[in-house]
Amino acid sequence: MSTRANSAFVIENREVTPAEWEGGALHRNRWTKKYTGDLTATGTLEAIMVGVEGGNPAAYLGVERIAGTLHGRKGTFIAVLSATAYSGDHAKSWKILPGSGTEELVGIRGEGEILDNHDFVLDYDIES
User: Fold this and answer.
1) For residues 29 and 43, what is the distance between their CA atoms, to the nearest angstrom?
2) Which domain holds residue 11?
3) Which letter does DSSP use for residue 87 in this model?
4) Which parts of the chain are beta strand (E)?
């Protein structure tokens, strides 16, 4: 049975490198995020965002290293993030990379969801 962590995050630093072309743009992003709540951590996100004029379609792909404490367990793990949008349809994914946990988070796996106002829920298991 999964455990749910309720947290929130703020983006503390943004580095964006744009590459524009006629009709669209690609942005390489490096963000530093601070998590509070059940997950108290710092995240370093490397992501690529691409879109066309008018914002439709758009896609986002990223990898984030999260270091801190989750329900009292210290360690790090990697999250793989993706999202697409087209004609009002949206799909998104936030998953822990299996095998990426360290220290007390070895064996962690699960999925998260970013809610309104940067609130965040994570459903996870830690295999012994």
Assistant:
1) 13
2) 3-123
3) T
4) 3-21, 24-37, 39-52, 58-70, 73-86, 89-96, 108-114, 119-126
> Residue 60's closest CA among 33, 99, 94, 13?
94
Dihedrals phi, psi of 104, to nearest 5 degrees: -80, 0
> Residue 46: which CATH number?
2.40.350.10
Three-state DSSP class for residue 83: strand
Q: Is 74 part of any domain?
A: yes
Domain membership flag for residue 128: no
Tens-digit pLDDT profile for residues 31-89:
999 999 999 999 999 999 999 887 688 999 999 999 999 999 999 999 999 999 888 88
Q: Say how many C-beta atoms besides its own lie within 10 A of residue 116's C-beta.
A: 5
Distance (Å, rounded) from C-alpha 6 to C-alpha 36? 9
